[in-house]
Amino acid sequence: MTAALLEAENLSKHFTLGGRFSPGGPQVLRAVDGVSLAVARGETLGLVGESGCGKSTLGRCLVRLYDVSGGAVRFEGRDITHLGEGALRPLRPRLQMVFQDPSSSLNPRRRVADLITEPLRVHPGPGGRARGRGEIRDRLHDLMDLVGLAREHLDRYPHEFSGGQRQRIGIARALALEPSLIVADESVSALDVSVQAQIINLFMDLQDRLGITYLFIAHDLSVVRQISTRTAVMYLGSVVETGDTETLFHRPAHPYTEALLSAVPVAHAGEARRRRIVLKGDVPSPLNPPPGCRFHTRCPKAQERCRIEPPALRDVGDGRMAACHFPNE
Amino acid sequence: MLLRRLGEMVFVMAGISVLVFLIFFATPGADPAARIAGRNASPDVLAAVRHDFGFDQPLWVQYLLLMKRLFVTGDLTSFVNRGQKVIPSILQAVPVTLSLLIGAAVLWVAVSVAIGVTAALTRGTIVDRALMILGLVGVSMPVFWVGEVANLITQSRYHDSWFFSWVPALGYVPLTQDPVGWFKALVIPWVTLAILYIGLYGRVLRASLIEAYHEDFIRTARAKGLGEGRVLVRHALRTSLVTFVSLFGLDFGALVGGGTLLTEIVFGLQGVGFLTFNALQNLDLPVIMATVMYASFFVVASNAVVDLLYAALDPRVRLARA
Amino acid sequence: MPEAADEPLLRVEDLCVSFRSERGLLRAVDRLSFTVAPGEILAVVGESGSGKSLTSLAVMGLIDDPNAVLTGSIRYRGRELVGLPRRELRKVRGDEIAMIFQDPMSAMTPVYTIGWQIAEQVQAHSRLTRRQARARAVDLLGEMGMPNPAIQVDRYPHQLSGGMRQRAMIAMALSCNPSLLIADEPTTALDVTVQAQILRLVEQLRRDHGSSIVFITHDMGVVAEIADRVMVMYAGKVVERGPKPDLFATPGHPYTVGLLDSIPPMAGAKPRRLPAIPGAPPSPADRPDGCPFGPRCAHRHDSCRVDPPLYRRGRQDVSCTLVPEGADA
């Protein structure tokens, strides 16, 4: 494997709920608990899981929007785990994030041109000098062409655009400083299906043209399959399986991945329907995760060992890693 | 939970007492002895007064002395009317303030609920607009002005007309002595005090009802086949109550603590507000200290009550704490 | 009331929902006709602004916007619901026709327990006592697969997980044994594994109670899973309808084709690019003249300037001029 662009080592993020004075004392929510993950240069790593599994928190820790509770984050080979805001600033242009709801991350009172060029005006150009007006305008035009926004819409405000167009604005903003990595957090989830396909295509085109690396966080498995080269599956704060996307979707090693895949309703006539595994019950609370394997309370294959000993993520062949005592072949 | 509340209350009240004490005793140029001794007192007299009241001792001794006489022995006496015990005079004033306030509160809650509900149900129509303008008028009229106008009409100008001849002279009639007289004496003060809050609460309730009507659960309630009346009372009004009640608790606390001052003065009601007003005019420190303590007690207490009500009304708050 | 043998349970004819606005009357639902047979599951599919949710609210008589204008006919068991006095409509609502909503968190009153809310509906349509209504609530919750229903009945909506809340919502809707259940995106807010549980529950309902279900969704996968018949809506109109197998095997309208193609496949070869539909669904304010899909359609030609009627093609009805010409979309 080539050197990882972004790497997490035994990363944890805990939130403390309730203060010292609240009844029962403070509670610790282990949103991300000991995750190790590497994103190689030029690839797209899909990160899937159900709500509350910690995938968004992990994304935010990796770009250091959150402080990390334990473990290490490395970007371009450099340890950024404990860098302060000031030390992170020079790195920010290369490490961008695109959010789910573009309308809430775009200032409604600014024009599109201002929104897209803001990062260019805030961050100095190469060599530490401020960019000139002409340079900024040229870059703006490039960016709008790149994401498929018409130049005559420069002076419009975000509310005059549809959801898909707004997401294009958000992407243009993230691209402005030529990032090497974009963390896309549910970036296509709020869009209509027909528009969602356009934005997925856009992400893929941009990767072809600019060689950007993505960490693509989504709950929609078919979207993740389309866009990512590798996939990681999270459950209750931990990564339970990683692997090459095709292998993982075709032959999931972890019973949770298997159940998750089988639960997706399939629209296409030609696709053979998987045998549906309907999991019992709900995801346990991350405030009080079960001992042993965290999935054992819902796992159809759970045995005595699973209730006691937490499985480590290990190689199960074909480039797959799974955290399971009894992985599928 | 309750213990923590009590602790907070003591802490806040102690803080306020120190602050008030410092303002009146330690501010340069505000020599209380000079005030008490009179304008042209000779230095000898001044010194005597100073010694008599303990002003020649260190500040913290003065403070502790004051607190002791206020809370422990309860024999604090007024500086100005020597011999007048502070605590009994407050206890005497409390029923007046409570009579005024409770009556007004009943009035303003009833009328503002009626106004808020009517306006929300007739939203956008003339009725709604008229009610809201009336509410705004109510909010904008100062209490002392309304009170004076009411007095002007009922006490002098038209007192002899058949319509207002029942209005007694200004002042308070104890409930235990003469319930009818109590009622007559207080009707106009009630209305005067309530007008502001009717306007305020009517508008607040209308806004929160309209907000509630946009909620999904109202649509669900209708989809269940419930009648409009039930949708209004059990779903919209019930969820709007949280805002309304917390507002009410805070206002009520502030008013018990002396916020009724203007109304009391205009109508010659010798309540706590009246007492505070007189004490401030004479810089009667023991009385000020006592009324401020009393006021802060009610403000802090009503805050605690609001919190408890909040939890009682909203299970999300209640269960988050449990 | 005598019922003809082939009389549908619900017959909607020429339903129009318009809104008075500064720009004149905007038609959100445009001359919509459809029927629901006893015991069938009709899926209504569409993207945002297609008018699918508005249609369901119209059937329930729940459009209370003072600027809304509703015309046409909605017949339930042969009885006209449009123009029915409120009091009469109330007897039908919740008792004969019930509805479940997308987000059970906001659709349930936060200050009452789920048991209280279910009992409220039961008591509104029967003479049961409080105690009996509560017992019915416990039974229903148990039937919906909620563990420990006798304890859960006293919990508040916010104390339940998303899946359990939706079960409570469904229990409430079913409390009076309605003949018709309208489900407006009931699984959209849920995770896939929970969605699978709820879909299984819906199927079970139809089997055990013989209820008709109108299932509104944007997810073609869910449609493929659950529907008997499908109605595809676009810009307030029906563009295609027919039995599920036919519609998925040979979709007739270019929009249906596009919608199916936009979904990334879960198995088999990945397309290099998703065949996305260009543009975005129009809002009611700027709907095009003629065929509403015209501006986004790859097959557009001159005759599309006139809004096409529904043409018959096999067992499907398709609103596209390509059908009578014999061309395949």
From TrEMBL, chain C:
Residue ranges of every copy of the ABC transporter domain listed in the record: 10-260
Q: Which terms under GO biological process does the entry name?
A: peptide transport; transmembrane transport
Task: Name the keywords, alphabetized.
Answer: ATP-binding, Cell membrane, Membrane, Nucleotide-binding, Transport
What the entry lists under Pfam families is as follows:
ABC_tran, oligo_HPY
Q: Mind telling me which InterPro entries this protein's record contains? A: AAA+_ATPase (IPR003593), ABC_Ni/Peptide_Import (IPR050388), ABC_transporter-like_ATP-bd (IPR003439), ABC_transporter-like_CS (IPR017871), Oligopep_ABC_C (IPR013563), P-loop_NTPase (IPR027417)
Q: Where in the cell is it found?
A: Cell inner membrane
Which SMART domains does this UniProt record tie to the protein?
Answer: AAA
GO MF annotation terms = ATP binding; ATP hydrolysis activity
Is Metal-binding given among the entry's keywords?
Answer: no
* Topological relation to the membrane, as annotated: Peripheral membrane protein
Q: Which domain of life is it from?
A: Bacteria
Q: Name one GO cellular component term.
A: plasma membrane
PANTHER family noted in UniProt: DIPEPTIDE TRANSPORT ATP-BINDING PROTEIN DPPD, OLIGOPEPTIDE TRANSPORT ATP-BINDING PROTEIN APPD
NCBIfam families named among the record's database cross-references: oligo_HPY (TIGR01727)
Family stated for the protein in its record: Belongs to the ABC transporter superfamily.
Name of this chain's protein = ABC transporter ATP-binding protein
